[in-house]
Write a structure and sequence with these properties.
This protein is of the alpha/beta class. The chain has four domains: about 300 residues, 3-Layer(aba) Sandwich (Rossmann fold), CATH 3.40.50.300; about 70 residues, no CATH class; about 90 residues; about 230 residues, P-loop containing nucleotide triphosphate hydrolases (Rossmann fold, 3-Layer(aba) Sandwich). It has 24 helices and 19 strands. The strands form four sheets. Strands 2-1-4-5-3-6-7-10 form an eight-stranded mixed sheet, with helices on both faces. The longest helix has about 50 residues. It starts with 10 loop residues before the first strand and ends with a helix.
Length: about 750
Amino acid sequence: MAPIPKLNQPICLIENEPGKKICLNQEAKQILEKISQPLVVVSIVGPYRSGKSYLMNKLAGVKTGGFPLGHTVQAKTKGIWMWCVPHPDKSARTLVLLDTEGLGDVHKGDKRNDSAILSLTLLLSSALVYNSIGTIDEDAVKTLYDTSELSECIMSRSSFEEGDLVDSPFTPLFVWAVRNFSLKMVLEGRAATADEYLENSLKEISSVTTPVAERRNFFRTTLRTRFPVRKCFTFEVPSTDNDKICNLENVPEKQLSPEFVEMMETFCQYIYKKAEAKMLEGGQVVTGCILGQLANSYIKAVTTKCIASLEHSITKIFLDENNSIIKSSTELYKGKIMSRSFDTLQEFQTFHESCLNEALTHFKEKYFKYRTVQDQSEHQLMETIEKQKEEVWKTLEVSSEKKCRKILDRLFEPIIKAQEQNKYHVAGGHNIFVKARDEIVKKFHVEPGKGVKAESVLQDFLKKNLEPMETIICQTDNNLSEKIQPPLKVHDPSDPTQLTNYIKGYKLKYQPYHRILIQLFGFAGHGKSSFVNSCMFALGGGHFNDVAGEGSSYGAKTTDRIGHKLTDCITIVDNRGFGKMDSSEAWHIYAQLCNIVPLNQIVVWNTSSTEKMQQLIQAVSAPDLIVPVFVCSSSYSCDKANSELIKTFLKNAQFLTEILPFIILTKKNSGKDQTETFKQMGMEQIYRLENYILTNKMATRGNHMPFLTFLKDVLDWVDYIYRRSVNFEEQQLKRKTFLIKNMT
């Protein structure tokens, strides 16, 4: 909360100079505008020279200074004077004391002026003290009724039913202070309290027989309705010394009547405790800024009696304040959302929602609850923040794009120089180029603070700058390589040497792909790792090596997705096998087949939809040509239910890769032949074989052939399928769309 402006003395809030219109003092309004705390507004009215200012100074807690006290027959206070002080009991509130000019000043001679001042006081207050001398008599009752009549009119025009007046924002706590009270407090022969004295004074006269008596009853009924919460204090004469009475502010309390001093303390404590913050319709507390604006509207309504425009004025105040709150909430949002950088749309969206919730909380704590204004204002805030969000996002995109292009231009310089020096236009130049390109991508990915457009700018850069260059380099490389050495052919498919040379010498010529990924998938423990070892052993010759970890996994233990390089352009991937093939595991296997899961990382089955989406957004798929291979043990019991699951899975694998899956049936010597089962599923390339394992790694021509034949067939299928051009971006979009659709 903002600190309360320091006021060493009261200031005139509403000016009421003779011959001039009642008006709001702009200096006082500016002071109020600096107070953001709710206001407890306590005002006092009553006849002039009745000691009103002394009571207000006591409430302010000052012994000297403060509101001026009148010691002559001439009234001192003109208009309504204001003093803002810290509330003695409620630290989150500001106590605003309003001292009014005396009613019935003979120098004014205008009861309409009294009515205007009291009406304004009633409308501005959360607690109203009516100060009178001697007793509660008929003149006092009539004066209070007459001067508050205009306020009643305003209350009626504000659509409050009589039964709702207790909660009406225009009905303040009412306290009647009777000064110099000398009567005995006895009613009907028994001792009475001050409150009972007040209620008796406002009680209707029974046996009404004259118009005058009927009029008096009307006054009392009306006042009880207008002031449903009432309290009375009676103060004895403070001293028998008339000089002290005339100079109360200069007389020490010990020289005053103890009863008077005690009652004064009781009065102050009651006001501190019972007077609540000024409220408006809808339960909205009034701050200094609002009170100043309300005062202007009330003055116009009271002085012109143009009540019809009051509601419009109050509505405008609410709307203006809510517009201000919308602005501050939007600035809060903007300050938060601009305070950090982002690398993905998902990061930005998540942080946006956090900032939006904070802005909404701020708005709901501050907004003015006036009829339908809240709903309109909140909707307006949401629209404003949405526009702000779009502007921030565009700013982030522009900034990220500029930074990423600058980084790529810098990283691209070595390739430009190499191109100018014709380093790529040689036999084998394509491989040199691919390594240089991959190095650019690698360095780009580790650059910090690239922002939200990093991936799209990279892909655009590769497509526009590197793909055309790569096409020319690849063509040049093929032409030069064919001149040096004609492409290898397999004349005898039964010759393992020809097969080995063909596989090792194979060059991938389909753009933009730079390698073939042979993706193994299937149930855990069915021999995928052993199949990887067998392919590498058959192709590489030499000694058998447990590169895939058969010995450390003991079957069904592979949890990482590991790639093993067979040749410069062929990599075989040992994906994590599934156990149940349920929807969660299936989704991750599909993600592996789509190359969404990076190589050489652990695969976790149980992930949430949010984590899956984050994985899709962050995935940087290399332009790899994917060949799906389903590995299944011949000893597996493939019943009807499992057959349907596997068939669905294989069809989805074909949809995602555009290649009919290859089927590897391991353990052919210890299981039954399930070739026909997979043919019925529509599969064509089916291989029954025995893997090399740690306990059986004797190399033979017959044992090598199934693996070499498989690898040669894979290459033939690649040449067959990719004889037509394929759009890699469209292929990846199709894969991601499939994964999003099947996300649970």
